[in-house]
Amino acid sequence: MEDHTIRKVEAVALTTAYRNNHEGQTRAFKIDKAEIDEIFAAHPAATGMRVYLGEDFTGLRLVMVATAAEGNDILDTFYDHSVRCPEVCDTSSILNNGI
């Protein structure tokens, strides 16, 4: 399996750049493990998931779908289990506040 981790300094730089360019906007989304498990339980053959950005009168929303081995979206069930930050944030996180 390929390693998709990044260093802390890069994570802080990426999130700081986003905050600086999108002041007052949604910073992050929290997705519970149980909700991710629900997607895969409903689609046992799925090998991944894709997260699309959506928007309504409340702001940004996530639209999540399971994906098949060939990378195509499985379009029979759509999910939005996310909680936006700044509504619910980890105020002590360096990814939310910088260093």
Label the overall shape: globular
**Helical content, roughly?**
25-40%
Strand order of the largest sheet: 2-3-4
Give Rg in angstroms.
Answer: 15 Å
Provide the residue-averaged pLDDT.
91
Please provide the count of β strands.
5
Low-confidence stretches: none
Order of helices and strands: HEHEEEEH
Euclidean distance between termini CA atoms: 31 Å
Number of helices: 3
Classify the beta-strand content into a percent band: 25-35%
Task: Write a compact overview of the structure shown.
By secondary structure, the chain is α+β, with helices and mostly antiparallel strands. The chain is 28% helix and 31% strand.
Task: Describe the protein in words.
This protein is α+β, with helices and mostly antiparallel strands and 99 residues long. The chain has a domain at 32-81. The chain is built from 3 helices and 5 strands. The strands form 2 sheets. Strands 2-3-4 form a 3-stranded antiparallel sheet, with no helix packed on it. Strands 1-5 form a two-stranded antiparallel ribbon. The longest helix is centred in the first third of the chain and has 14 residues, at 8-21. It is globular, with a radius of gyration of 15 Å. The protein starts with 7 loop residues before the first helix and ends with a helix.
Task: Tag the structure with descriptive keywords.
alpha+beta, single chain, 99 residues, two-stranded antiparallel ribbon, 31% strand, 5 strands, three-stranded antiparallel β-sheet
Describe how the helices and strands are arranged.
Layout: H1 8-21, E1 28-30, H2 33-42, E2 48-56, E3 59-67, E4 73-79, E5 83-85, H3 94-97
Antiparallel strand pairs: 1-5, 2-3, 3-4
